[in-house]
Amino acid sequence: MVKIALLGSTGSIGRQVLNVARRYPEKYSVVSLACGGNAELLERQINEFKPKIACITDSSAALKIRELPSGVSLYSGENALLHAVTEEADVVFVAVSGFCGLAPTLFAIELGKTVALANKETLVAGGEIVMKRAREKGVRIIPVDSEHSAIFQCLGCRLDAEFEKLIITASGGAFRDLSKEEIAVKKAADALKHPNWNMGKKITIDCATLVNKGLEVIEACRLYNAPLEKVEAVVHPESVIHSMVEFKDGAVLAQLGTPSMEIPIQFALSFPERLETGVKRVNFYEKPLTFKKIDTDRFPCFSLALDAFKKGDNYPCAMSAANEVAVELYLEDKIGFYDIGKIIEYALSKTERLSPTVENLVYTDKTVRRAIYSADISEL
Ligand code: NDP
Ligand code: MG
User: Fold this and answer.
1) Residues 249 and 160 reside in one and the same domain
2) Whose CA is nearest to atom 31 of ligand 1?
3) What is the CATH number of the domain that holds 42?
4) Which of 128, 198, 323, 336 lies 20 to 30 A from 204 at CA?
5) Which ligand is closest to the CA of 94, given by its number?
6) Integer Cα distance of 132 and 135 in angstroms
7) Which ligand 1 atom minimizes the distance to the CA of 37?
8) Same domain for 111 and 150?
9) CA atoms within 13 A of residue 172's CA, in its CB half-sphere
10) In a domain, 334, yes or no
11) Quick check: is 253 in a domain?
């Protein structure tokens, strides 16, 4: 029986992790559940899975949870996520979104727990420390993001295998076929209509701006210890090939599947074993598989993300924090599509270079958020 600590249980990934536990109750149990503020869903999950620990960051939302089954302890407040990282777990599944994933991921590593990592912002902001500590502690980090899971599968479920190049595929997002002028006036509601994937709001916007692909290239560099030159991103609108690995002899391996996170999520828990998911099978006669180059003129955020990575130190953290705030503002219809890139550029220009220690990353994250909230966006 694999005991799972699930951080971000109310989200798109988190709910699918619980589907795996439902599908295979004899293989997986849930020892802790944690979320941000969705008390109603968390309460239902607590009653269904009866974890020992339940955590909710928003203290006022916690008050809505009135009745707990016996044996369940409830924690709330800013550090609630850390309580979910319990000694009892075998795997800590980090499916929260944003920078808040860094501290619990590092704590899980300190406890020597295997980490199934969906939360890409953690690797973007703190990838150097996370991977270094994981190596030092001999802790396994298992990628969940579909591209990184695809690469993991092509590399024989290893993070340290040799390769020539990683080729990350991108759907292109909701606006992939529109002109710059058309994209400029698109609202968040349009960006949320992703052509291939059904995901949380933040990542769906990140797909539309292609920030997501920038974050994923960085994530791949961190996970597979690769220089930027060895990672390429290519638009593949059908989202059937989830990523590829090119080897020294010119051979290329790819992992394919219909676009569903159920496979990478379940594989992170079951590997090297493969279990039935019920996912629709690939139909090779349905549509041709096509590839295009990323258009950085229409999608400047892709280059901005990589520029931050090239600058190193705390710049990727600053970029990711700025993007988180910009996406929130775009979702609230307070800024336009191309303001997201302007905000990232502004934040990077204001960032003071610091070495990427945990303290410095927390400081950078806070400072960037404060700087954007106090800036006049129309002046940027
Ligand atoms: P969602 O927005 O659907 O869910 C986010 C989860 O994180 C929710 O459970 C939310 O709780 C919780 N959360 C957010 N902030 C906090 C906080 N401060 N403290 C505690 N919990 C918090 O996101 P997704 O599931 O889409 O994505 C999760 C992560 O996985 C992201 O990093 C994303 O980039 C990555 N990812 C997602 C994919 C997808 O298909 N969705 C694919 C690949 C990667 P609540 O709802 O209660 O506020
Ligand atoms: Mg992905």
Assistant:
1) yes
2) 97
3) 3.40.50.720
4) 128
5) 1
6) 5
7) 47
8) no
9) 20
10) no
11) yes
Q: How many structural domains are present in the chain?
A: 2
Q: What is the pTM of this model?
A: 0.97
What are the respective helix, strand and coil percentages of the chain, to the nearest 5?
A: 45, 15, 40
Atom of ligand 1 nearest to the CA of 10: 9
Q: Whose CA is nearest to atom 43 of ligand 1?
A: 145
Ramachandran quadrant class, 157 (left: phi over 0; alpha: psi -120 to 50; beta: rest): left
Residue 33 within any structural domain of the chain: yes
Tell me how far the alpha carbon of residue 74 lies from the centroid of ligand 2, in angstroms. 32
Do 17 and 129 lie in a common domain? yes
Measured CA to CA, the distance from residue 357 to residue 140 in angstroms comes to 21
Range of the domain at 134: 2-144
Q: How far is the CA of 361 from the centre of ligand 2 (A)?
A: 23
User: Which two structure tokens, joined as six digits, stand for 311?
Assistant: 């600058």
Q: Which residues fall within 8 angstroms of residue 359, CB to CB, at 6 or more apart?
A: none
For atom 2 of ligand 1, the residue with the nearest CA is 200
Instruction: Tell me which amino acid residue 333 is.
Output: D
What is the Cα–Cα distance from 40 to 61, expressed in whole angstroms?
Answer: 9
Among 294, 329, 356, where does a domain finish?
Answer: 294
